[in-house]
Fold:
Amino acid sequence: MKYISGLLSTVIVVSGGILSLPQLAANAVTLGNGAIAFAQPPRLVSASTPYNDTSVSDTTYYFTLQVPATAGEPLQQVTFKQIQGTEDIDLNQNNTFAFEGTRDRQGSKLALKAVKSNDKQQTLVVNFDSPIPPGKTVTIGLRSYRNPFADGVYLIGVTAFPSGGQTVGQFIGIGRLQFYKDTYTES
Structure:
């Protein structure tokens, strides 16, 4: 009986020691050509707008991303590309902004290094001044000059890039925005 209780005590002590070991951070993935990728890419948590009527002027589209603690590298750049919609959404790159947290729980404002757009490819590239460390949630606000005139579903593909000289972007999801025609008519 002493043997069994001694063995049980040893198992409990060893198990407790293993459970109390610090979690090891994931390392970034280095590809054969030397490019760096996330060990676990960020995740697109949500895409939304407070005004989903067509033709509303000066609106904001919020994209919330979560950088997992196991990402291995901080988030440096995010690319947005419209992949579906009746008309092209015209974004105002000069009024793009970002902050820690979500649309409903805004935290510290984040400085952006550069925001570039390519109207022909319907893309907008956002570079953070300081990379977003693993374990953080960030929201990027894309300002549009106006919502589309045409109602319907508009899809925006989102790609994330880690920090570093030579990196590989990883597609992290599709933001879905739905716009509705105002059917209000006066009598």
The radius of gyration is 22 Å. Residues 2-19 form the longest helix (18 residues). Residues 6-25 have pLDDT under 50 and may be disordered. The CA atoms of residues 115 and 126 lie 5 Å apart.
